[in-house]
User: Which sequence fits this backbone?
């Protein structure tokens, strides 16, 4: 929608990797005849000078170049695979954070690109269109994460159900055996007995969480 509505030729979606803080390329739209010569950067380093990175960090739409919020020294995310660089027009807009709120840190950026020369700069309509597309993607991302969290909590509840089915006598016997063993070995206990029973049961779920 953002690509066609803005008369662009390609678009991409980057999401911030929570581990490395790099921006990873998650989705690309580019016609096949253009993908032979052009490509989007697969990963963008945190704190770099890519238009998508700066856009997400500052939380505002940036155009490269010229026009609205243009900034010198920024690099495009889309480039030619071989040969000399060609001029491109690129618009990047941040993807809002939790629940699509612009006040929260961005979770990524969406870019749309006009390749080659002879294109008009992006105007206010194209900027609004790109922001609308980024907001929709952010809401989809938030919904997906909420569904994933719900599955994790459901799994934890099921594990807890299995835990409650253990008999009290067995539980007490296991505790007594551990306490006797700890005294004999001179081990200093870190976890209370009840946590030592529970944690192994939900270890896999907690690791996933």
Assistant:
């Amino acid at each position: 929608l953002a690509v066609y509505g803005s008369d662009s030729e390609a678009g991409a979606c980057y999401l911030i990797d929570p581990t490395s803080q790099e921006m990873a390329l998650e989705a690309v739209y580019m016609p096949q005849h253009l993908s032979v010569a052009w490509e989007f950067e697969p990963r963008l380093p945190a704190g770099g000078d890519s238009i998508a990175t700066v856009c997400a960090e500052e939380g505002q739409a940036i155009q490269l170049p010229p026009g609205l919020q243009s900034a010198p020294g920024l690099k495009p995310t889309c480039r030619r695979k071989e040969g000399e660089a060609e001029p491109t027009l690129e618009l990047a807009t941040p993807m809002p954070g939790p629940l699509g709120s612009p006040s929260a840190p961005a979770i990524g950026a969406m870019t749309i690109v006009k390749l080659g020369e002879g294109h008009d700069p992006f105007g206010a309509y194209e900027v609004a269109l790109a922001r609308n597309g980024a907001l929709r993607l952010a809401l989809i991302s938030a919904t997906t994460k909420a569904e994933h969290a719900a599955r994790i909590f459901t799994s934890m509840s099921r594990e807890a159900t299995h835990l409650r089915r253990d008999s009290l006598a067995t539980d007490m016997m296991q505790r007594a055996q551990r306490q006797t063993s700890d005294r004999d070995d001179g081990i200093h206990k870190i976890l209370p007995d009840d946590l030592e029973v529970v944690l192994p049961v939900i270890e896999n779920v907690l690791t996933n969480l």
User: Anything to note?
Assistant: The longest helix spans residues 124-165. The chain has a mean pLDDT of 77. The radius of gyration is 26 Å. The beta strands are 10-16, 23-29, 38-40, 43-44, 62-64, 78-80, 88-95, 108-115.
